[in-house]
Here is the input.
Amino acid sequence: MYARASSGLITILPSMTSSGADSAPSGTHLLSWQSDYPPHKSISPPLSTYKKGKLDIRRLLESEESSERKKKMEGLVSFQPFPSSVIQRRLSTVYLTTRYPSSSSSSCAPPLRAQQSGITGGSESVSSALEGKASEQEVGMLYQDEVVSSQGIRIRRRPPTGPPLHYVGPFEFRLQNEGNTPRNILEEIVWHKDKEVTLMKEKRPLYTLKKALENVPPPRDFIAALRSAHQRTGLPGLIAEVKKASPSRGILREDFDPVAIAQAYEKGGAACLSVLTDEKYFKGSFENLQAIRDAGVKCPLLCKEFIVEAWQIYYGRSKGADAVLLIASVLPDLDIKYMLKICKILGMATLVEVHDEREMDRVLAIEGVELIGINNRNLETFEVDIGITKRLLEGERGELIRQKDILVVGESGLFTPEDIAFVQEAGVKAVLVGESLVKQSDPGQGISTLFGRDVSG
Ligand SMILES: O=P(O)(O)OC[C@@H](O)[C@@H](O)c1c[nH]c2ccccc12
Here is the structure.
């Protein structure tokens, strides 16, 4: 377990907190301090006797008074500044280890979500399955920040210095600064998603979701549908996107009826559908996903969400998703590996999205990736260039992809038969298209216009 201190206050990261005893890995005891971000969470029953409160680390570490206090606390919690030089330098990371009950517990569990959440699916324990696989170097890395930067990930998963403001009595602390202001739209979305998921999980803990899965029809084979459409038509298999709006393009369609659009896509020859579920930035919803599934649409469905936690995968499945999107610029390798495992257990496909060579190389090195999406739109800047698909499939990368029989999806910015021919020539066997279809008065007919011929039936 680990906590991050900001401005001298311990803030528990949401990934540390459990939304049900179900998700606590055995031998680990979750402890929650009152924290201002995310909203304070309750603690699991055996720990409810622990006092909650705010803890001033600077005082804890430095003052005499605090050593008294520290002693008092030690019966309950042991504090392991790790390493102390770093704490002193930036007062940013402290590890907490519970001593309850008499478990030899834990020292510092590696600070990566994958090891912490301990979600199990079926009889297999994902975390233990991963333990053997993650490289020692990876597990040994003490800071998620460092893992993330070593993988070239620029997106910070949470504001490093906490939210812009917090209140103590009548006082207001922390003004807007570099550490609590998102640097780009993707970062903003991810920070918002983190809070949103924390709240959603509270309403629907993992064990209730798992129960709900028993009544959900089995997943459909997303990849097989794309391959067979490609074989049938000689053109890339189409994932047609049900998208009302986007931060870069605004509202795409005012009279937005997700089920009617999905049905039109299916009729027009789409192999699969992608359904935006993000509400705030894309005006989508999980209700749309479920409504499309319940309306009897047969195409496999991709849950188009910004996944930051495995819980979202279970939630998507419970709403009828057959596949999920994992964005390499958001998720470190270990999270991708972990989430791939979960998808496998749930029988879902995983579309792993990359935008540049570095992300492509990372993803190609991960075992078990069968479907890679190349996003021609940079989600940080919104720039679109379909030449990216070509660039990332040239040379050795293309060769490796063919050897591994990975199916590549060209994503975003595709409007004309020439665009389709261009990315097909580059090596994709599938395309993901939203705007150019959803804007048509008949989105199904839009498919024929996009491909330059009828691909239905
Ligand atoms: O509407 P377009 O330009 O055809 O793009 C569709 C799809 O590629 C795009 O919506 C997308 C690709 N990756 C994403 C990740 C999150 C949200 C949206 C996306």
